[in-house]
Design a protein that fits this description.
- By secondary structure, the chain is an alpha+beta fold.
- The protein has one domain: paralog of FGE (formylglycine-generating enzyme), CATH 3.90.1580.
- The chain contains three helices and 13 strands.
- A four-stranded mixed β-sheet has the order 11-10-9-12. Strands 3-6-13 form a three-stranded antiparallel β-sheet, with helices on one face. Strands 1-2 form a two-stranded antiparallel ribbon.
- The two termini are 32 Å apart.
Length: 301
């Protein structure tokens, strides 16, 4: 019994990490609900900025200290790829350069643009002249609608079906399969991720390569702190749609009042950054703690 990671290598030497857990007198489970078998899939088209989260069972919820967390359940989630890092200011500026208007410009709580407009378009310089945003820090202060628009734009640019993660996909990518509290294990540590109190001086966003211990078993970075992520789901207090112990990719009604947010941020304390924590936000709202991270479905053919 225990928690393990199996490393599978294909014919060209590319490795896929497959974590699994065995309970007392148990066995490895790899059969989807209602199906006889599910071959282990080794994706061949991953890019350098994404990692694979294989299809399989995982423990969702069950963390009583996680705000608004779900009850403990073993669920099946189909495979997907997730970007290693959240979307950065540099990424967002490329998006803005291809937009016909200013609809998707990040704006602070007062409605002021985070960037300055120069003769060649938007730049990272702050409008008040107090310095520049870090190009490789996560973009925040964007709405759910802008996050959806960015995903659609990136999908067109890259020729792959990028989208926002569903909240249970996000939870599996962060916690692996064994129900751990944080991406690295069961201890919340301000030295391991960017939460309130991690840095000298006031809390602030840092570059996505900071805090190397904030990494999940699959290799996804920054799921513990720094910035939270918009999710595709309409927020429901009892949790997202489940069909026969299987995660369902369902965004809900287009006019849903709230959308789901997952992850801790530089503004949050130790309880809030626990990976089973759940949040809701108005889709037209903006927050300095909430940004964007993309996924794409990778299911065996």
């Amino acid at each position: 019994m225990g928690s393990y990671v199996l490393e599978l290598t294909d014919a060209i030497g590319e490795a896929t990490l497959y974590p699994f857990v065995i309970g007392r007198q148990g066995e490895v489970r790899h059969r989807p609900p209602g199906e006889d078998e599910c071959p282990l899939h080794l994706p061949e088209d991953l890019e350098g900025d994404e990692v694979y989260v294989p299809a399989g069972w995982f423990q969702a919820g069950g963390d009583e200290r996680a705000p608004y967390g779900l009850r403990k359940r073993d669920l099946w989630c189909d495979g997907f790829a997730m970007q290693t890092h959240p979307v950065t200011h540099e990424d967002w500026l490329r998006f803005l350069a291809d937009q016909p208007d200013d609809e998707h410009v990040p704006r602070n709580d007062d409605g002021d643009a985070l960037y300055s407009r120069g003769p060649d378009g938007w730049t990272l310089d702050r409008p008040d002249g107090s310095g520049s945003w870090q190009a490789d820090a996560p973009v925040t202060y964007v709405t759910w609608h802008s996050a959806e628009a960015y995903a659609a734009w990136r999908a067109e640019q890259d020729g792959v079906p990028w989208r926002l993660p569903f909240e249970l996909e996000w939870e599996k990518a962060a916690r692996g399969v064994d129900g751990r509290v944080m991406p690295w294990g069961d201890t919340v540590d301000a030295a391991y991720c960017n939460l309130r109190g991690s840095l000298e001086g006031p809390p602030r966003l840092v570059e996505v390569e900071a805090f190397p211990h904030d990494v999940s078993v699959y290799g996804v970075r920054g799921l513990g702190g720094n910035s939270a992520d918009w999710c595709a789901d309409a927020y429901e207090s009892e949790g997202p749609v489940i069909a026969g112990d299987r995660v369902v990719r369902d965004e809900g009604a287009p006019d849903a009042r709230f959308r789901s947010v997952r992850g801790g941020s530089y503004r949050d304390g130790p309880e809030a950054v626990r990976c089973a924590s759940r949040w809701r936000a108005l889709p037209a709202s903006r927050s300095g703690r909430v940004g964007v991270r993309l996924v794409r479905s990778i299911d065996p053919g």
